[in-house]
Amino acid sequence: MNQGGATVRRGSRVTRLAAFACWAALTWAAPAFAGPYSRLLVLLPGETAAPGSPSGKTGTPTAQTVGVPFSITVHACDNTWTTVTSVTDQIQILCSDASATLPPSSLLSSGVGTFQVTFNAGGTFQIFAHDQTDGTIPDGTSSSVQALVLQGFVFSAINQKNQYAGTPMNITVRAVNPSGGTVTGSASPPSGRTAACGGGATAARGARTTVAGRRNRK
């Protein structure tokens, strides 16, 4: 009897543990249900949505280059920053850079919209999302993001006097601002500012480049 009773007790405990495990799995796997739509979240490049967090997002905004378009994402959220997928309101994008190139107003799809913005001045700016359909929703405000002025690119000096056709050589390209300082946050490639040269080398437009069709003699 005692042994039988112990067996029953063990079985009962296992059953309870199994039931708890099933409940936990279902609870953790269940999607978050959004409450009423109450605010807008603006995400910049480098940021991702983080529902339930104080700011609704995580990450650090990536510095942008003046004159280069980039995309932002706007989410219609409840008070926990969970996306309310039923919202299809029309959103207008505004910016603290008065010279910025802004997109036309657009409707959200499933509570989310993507917009393209271009800064046209250097400095630190914020982007705002305004709900034109529901005036009770406060404007969403982005994190502050830096706009870097890019004047051009400077190629490093070639130390070795003679080069060999068809042989790669290492050079460094530096993004610079109008004062000649390095634009440390720029991720823009020098497209449109380089010209292809023979032998696979490239040089800035306006720079003198000589590529021989035979091996140069030292």
User: First CA to last CA: what distance?
Assistant: 101 Å
Major β-sheet profile: 4 strands, antiparallel
Helices and strands, in order, run as: HEEEEEEEEEEEEEEEE
What structural category arises from helix and sheet content? alpha+beta
Number of domains: 3
Strand runs, count: 16
Q: Could you please say which CATH topology of the largest domain applies here?
A: Immunoglobulin-like
Q: What Rg do the Cα atoms give?
A: 29 Å
Strand order of the biggest β-sheet: 7-6-10-11
CATH superfamily of the largest domain: Immunoglobulins
Q: What's the CATH architecture name of the largest domain? A: Sandwich
Regarding CATH, which class of the largest domain? Mainly Beta
Q: What proportion of the residues form beta strands (DSSP E)?
A: 25-35%
The coarse silhouette is flat
Residue windows where pLDDT falls under 50 for at least 5 positions: 26-30, 191-218
Helix content bin: 10-25%
Number of helices: 1
Mean pLDDT: 78
Structure description:
- There is one protein chain.
- The chain is α+β, with helices and mostly antiparallel strands.
- It has 3 domains: 30 residues; 110 residues, Immunoglobulins (Immunoglobulin-like), CATH 2.60.40.10; 69 residues, no CATH class.
- The protein has 1 helix and 16 strands.
- The N and C termini lie far apart (101 Å).
- The relative contact order is 0.14.
